[in-house]
Design goal:
mainly alpha; 4 helices; rod-shaped
């Protein structure tokens, strides 16, 4: 591997490390039920991942495929977790609406 290829790999690895850290922060935001902050950070992370994929050649990305796979796996897990939280919020909202309607019926 040439020096330039090593520098590219290191640069990509650093970017991926940062993205993986952002994934962890997103998980914390979900656990703490900070949904607006989660949504904003999720958009930012998505844009950064797209930028990474568009700004580097497939050959250079292959050199860090393990980290890319880890990022993909964490993204899938985070999406599933977000969907669970969304469903719970939706169910909670529906229950609150029903309770509110019941209270109005008794008044």
């Amino acid at each position: 591997m040439h020096k330039n290829e090593n520098e590219t790999k290191t640069s990509i690895e650093q970017l991926l490390d940062g993205l993986l850290m952002q994934q962890q922060q997103l998980e914390v935001l979900l656990k703490e039920e900070q949904y607006e902050a989660f949504q904003q950070q999720q958009i930012t992370l998505s844009l950064q991942i797209k930028r990474l994929m568009n700004n580097h050649s497939q050959e250079s990305l292959i050199t860090v495929s393990t980290k890319l796979q880890a990022l993909e796996k964490k993204t899938i897990q985070l999406k599933a977790l977000a969907e669970v939280h969304f469903k719970q919020l939706k169910d909670k909202s529906l229950l609150q609406r029903r309770n509110k309607n019941r209270l109005k019926a008794y008044q």
